[in-house]
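Thought: the user asked what phosphoserine transaminase looks like in 3D. I have the sequence; next I should run the structure tool and report back without guessing.
Action: structure_tool
Action Input:
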Amino acid sequence: MATITIPQSILPEDKRFGSGPSKIRPEQVEALGQAAHTVLGTSHRQQPVKDIVGSIREGMASFFALPDGYEVVLGNGGATAFWDMACASLITRQAACGVYGSFSAKMAASVAQAPFLEDPVLFEAEPGSYAVPELTQYVDTYCWAHNETSTGVEAPVYRIEGSEEQGALILVDATSAAGAIPVDIAQTDAYYFSPQKAFGSEGGLWVAILSPRAVERAEGIRRSISLEGARRWIPPFLSLTDAIDNSRKNQTLNTPALGTLVLLEDQVRWLNENGGMAWSSARCRKSSDIVYQWAEDSSYASPFVKDPQARSRSVCTIDLDESVPAAQLIAILRDNGILDVNGYRKLGRNQLRIGVFPSVEPADVKALLACVDYVVERM
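Observation:
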């Protein structure tokens, strides 16, 4: 493959466009350095670390404008762990799941594999579109993803009509949406995510915004397993009530990666200081609009998601003409320092996937696309 050198003058200032892990701002790294002698390598149950966790929880509550009674809970393991935690601690008997990509499918698979739950009712759509569950008799929990990271599809978040009368909970995976896409938290009972996307941190942690009804459900399930003959087993790691109890003390059940907490605290503070959700989502909208307009105008690229209303504002998926091999293009970009614009591997399309989270400068998005055009012209 011939080497193509992109002129320095048109390269992005920062060349990271990953869909997760995503760009970490230099100021966050500075905060990490400042914590090196005061927090890193110390106990997570002592006040300095508790202060960081408390700041995260307060900052998240402000950022999402939490309704009365809602609370921010942190736990070990990432959103993947929360899928299993939801099975153990939130779904009573049966869930209905929207499935329209790799990550929404994995959540549904966790539900299907839980031996004490009935098989989930699936509402499925092809990659590039979405399917929000509909009201279903006997279902006690509705689950879907606000943003399907694998396909760049953004789904609406709302309470399914009739679900409250049914006593059902609304669980929304927000890993690549939280912090980038507006949401009315009151429409959910558990809005959960990992912090390595819009919140510019590392993996291994989950954050969940829980309604009073979700907390009550978790406590009720914990009480029920003490009954003689109960089939459900909740290991401590998957106990949502244990996570809630620890979060209220500004700590996690098990030892967290303290660097992750430091990076997250700095990012939450930065987002709030700049204007919170309104500012962050507008910034992501600006960047995603740049990408989609470029693709619409391009002779060799087009948005993968055909419905403009379903196009993600945080993860842009762009199909390329067969005459432009994505693997070759991505390799050349990487040789020039431009990182992580690969399409999702399991989707298997000739595609770019561009993360436009709030840490990414819109000017860098424009520069990235200019570099793509430059390379394609010379391939």
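Thought: the tool returned a structure. Summarizing for the user.
Final Answer: Structure for phosphoserine transaminase predicted. The chain has two domains: 14-24+277-377, 26-272. The longest strand covers residues 71-76.
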